[in-house]
Amino acid sequence: MEQEQLVLGMTCHQAKGREWDRVGVRLEQSDAAALRKGLDSSDEAHRALYVALTRARRSTLAV
Fold it and tell me: Which GO terms describe its molecular function (predicted)?
């Protein structure tokens, strides 16, 4: 019998400083637009998005 594995769900603030092999990030339309334009380090929402997108060691998936 194969053991089920839990998938953690957390905010980017809870994930800060931690890493996983693969990370799924739910992007809002405003997040996708910010990524197309480039993130602004003085914008708190952009900093949070950066943290969320940099938690993966191998791959990040937009969900």
Answer: ATP binding; helicase activity; hydrolase activity
Burial 23-50 (b: 16+ CB within 10 A, else e): bebeeeeebeebeeeeeeeeeeebeebe
| Rounded distance between C-alpha atoms, residue 21 and residue 28, angstroms | 23
Q: What pTM does this model have? A: 0.76
Instruction: Please report which helix (H) or strand (E) contains residue 61, including its range.
Output: strand 56-62
Kindly list the distances between the CA atom of residue 45 and the CA atoms of 2, 21, 28, 42, in Å, as whole numbers in the listed order. Answer: 40, 24, 12, 9
Q: Is the pLDDT of residue 9 over 70?
A: yes
Residue positions counted in the chain: 63
